[in-house]
């Protein structure tokens, strides 16, 4: 094994998917992250790891050694077991003479306990070339149990030498990024670019991440085996296999999620005592192709077809069965796109977004009927994708003003995608008039903090005044509560 001449921990550390007795630790060896292979030869390297009760690593509770293989692009995923529930731990890695920066993680509460409180940070959509990841710097400083990332962790599009709207003047990105990601090497390099961001590294080092994906981890608006341009499915599936492989390599995920060719088992369920059950959906791999093409279109018989699915039959049944069996006070559904109905205007010529659940109304109806049958009193749906903050009441029947509210939906804006944005966008008035269940709308960048306890859920929508320059301050644009047993959003002054 060759010596490693320069620091290989340039992409930091991460942890994820906390269980009461276990957590996943992640790092990658990449002394030259912007080169294929990270600047290492195609051979295996030994990586030591330590987990401690304190940030000074005086009381070690677990340690070991794993292999960073070239087949996995020198990433490692350590599944540490036998841990104490509901407490923080600190971890680090060693390779050759180098030691990684430390990370802090946290296990989930005991399965049969009722924790007093849970706090999750919500994030989505971080186009590197549209601005800085300042939202993650603020999330790193927050007191959280975990960050739930709702997709579009990276974008497949080209990034020029100035990093687009970041407009670098002190560095030049290599030309390898100035093309759309298509191959395994392309996607691996794109993750290296994104993970080189110091604010994203800080958030990963501060909290465990719980991740799902949306479309841009592969290609915009893809659906199952179909890409946006109508390529033969077998051609697109080769690209999907490359993207899924790079996603698994670079996320703090367990070995059981390792993809097999173009397929990856990503949907899963995490319990946080009996206070919250978190179900994470895969809304891309199994969905029917979008009706009438992508974008905002007039719905019709094709989109209304009851055979159409957002989740696939197996995942849908898994979710409904999990809701029926749930013993949690709060059932939180984490998925990437807008669930509630959204029309662009109130007249009969309205359009809906065919890439969201509006393009799959029968699939949505099956979930709403299943939630009603399971008597879920406290369902909270999380989403992202649309680069705006939204708070929506989910009605059992959106056409009936008297229909009861079944759940609340919290849509988190982007970290950076679509640049700085604005508090009030031109389409707000029309959207609010057409969708009376839409309670809040803001077009700035930012994140959401979801705070759960026995009495209520609280959502704080945080925004940044800009992302096209670093270091923006953060403000709270709006806050809502959902009282336990009383579905529906209530604004806080």
UniProtKB/TrEMBL annotation:
Location of the PhoD-like phosphatase metallophosphatase domain: 120-461
InterPro entries hit by this protein: Metallo-depent_PP-like, PhoD-like_MPP, PhoD-like_sf, PhoD_N, Phospholipid_Metab_Enz
Organism encoding this protein: Streptomyces coryli
Lineage per the UniProt record: Bacteria, Bacillati, Actinomycetota, Actinomycetes, Kitasatosporales
Alphabetized SUPFAM superfamilies for the sequence: Metallo-dependent phosphatases (SSF56300)
Protein name stated in the entry: Alkaline phosphatase
PANTHER family reported for this sequence: ALKALINE PHOSPHATASE FAMILY PROTEIN (AFU_ORTHOLOGUE AFUA_5G03860) (PTHR43606:SF2), PHOSPHATASE, PUTATIVE (AFU_ORTHOLOGUE AFUA_6G08710)-RELATED (PTHR43606)
Segments forming domain Phospholipase D N-terminal: 11-107
């Amino acid at each position: 094994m060759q010596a490693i001449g320069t620091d290989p921990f340039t992409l930091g550390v991460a942890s994820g998917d906390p269980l009461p007795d276990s957590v996943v630790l992640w790092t990658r060896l990449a002394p030259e992250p912007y080169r294929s292979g990270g600047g290492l030869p195609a051979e295996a390297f030994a990586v030591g790891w330590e987990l401690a009760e304190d940030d000074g690593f005086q009381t070690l509770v677990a340690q070991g050694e794993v292999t960073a293989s070239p087949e996995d692009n020198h990433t490692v995923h350590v599944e540490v077991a036998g841990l104490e529930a509901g407490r923080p731990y600190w971890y680090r890695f060693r390779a050759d003479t180098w030691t990684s920066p430390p990370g802090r993680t946290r296990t989930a509460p005991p399965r049969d306990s009722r924790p007093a409180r849970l706090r999750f940070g919500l994030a989505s959509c971080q186009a590197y070339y549209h601005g800085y990841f300042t939202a993650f710097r603020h999330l790193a400083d927050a007191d959280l149990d975990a960050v739930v990332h709702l997709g579009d962790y990276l974008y497949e599009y080209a990034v020029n030498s100035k990093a687009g709207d970041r407009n670098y003047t002190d560095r030049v990105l290599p030309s390898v990024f100035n093309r759309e990601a298509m191959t395994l090497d392309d996607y691996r390099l794109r993750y290296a670019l994104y993970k080189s961001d110091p604010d994203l590294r800080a958030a990963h080092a501060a909290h465990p991440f719980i991740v799902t994906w949306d479309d841009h981890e592969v290609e915009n608006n893809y659906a199952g085996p179909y890409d946006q341009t109508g390529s033969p499915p077998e051609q697109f599936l080769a690209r999907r296999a490359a993207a899924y492989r790079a996603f698994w390599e670079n996320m703090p995920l367990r070995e059981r999620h390792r993809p097999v060719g173009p397929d990856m088992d990503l949907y899963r369920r995490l319990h946080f005592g009996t206070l919250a059950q978190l179900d994470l959906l895969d809304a891309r791999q199994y969905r029917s192709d979008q009706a009438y093409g992508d974008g905002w279109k007039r719905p019709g018989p094709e989109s209304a077809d009851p055979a159409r699915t957002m989740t696939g039959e197996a995942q849908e049944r898994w979710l409904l069965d999990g809701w029926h069996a749930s013993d949690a006070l709060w059932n939180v559904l984490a998925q990437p796109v807008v669930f509630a109905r959204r029309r662009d205007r109130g007249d009969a010529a309205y359009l809906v977004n065919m890439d969201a659940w509006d393009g799959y109304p029968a699939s949505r109806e099956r979930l709403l009927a299943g939630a009603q049958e399971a008597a879920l009193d406290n369902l909270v749906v999380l989403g992202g994708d649309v680069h705006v903050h939204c708070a929506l009441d989910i009605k059992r029947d959106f056409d009936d003003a008297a229909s009861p509210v079944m759940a609340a939906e919290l849509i988190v804006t982007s970290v950076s995608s679509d640049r700085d944005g604005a508090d009030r966008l031109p389409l707000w008035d029309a959207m609010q008039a057409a969708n009376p269940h839409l309670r809040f709308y803001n077009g700035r960048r930012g994140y959401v903090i979801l705070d759960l306890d026995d009495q209520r859920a609280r959502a704080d929508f945080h925004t940044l005044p800009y992302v096209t320059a670093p270091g923006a301050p953060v403000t709270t644009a709006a806050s809502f509560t959902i009282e336990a047993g009383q579905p529906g959003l209530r604004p806080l002054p």
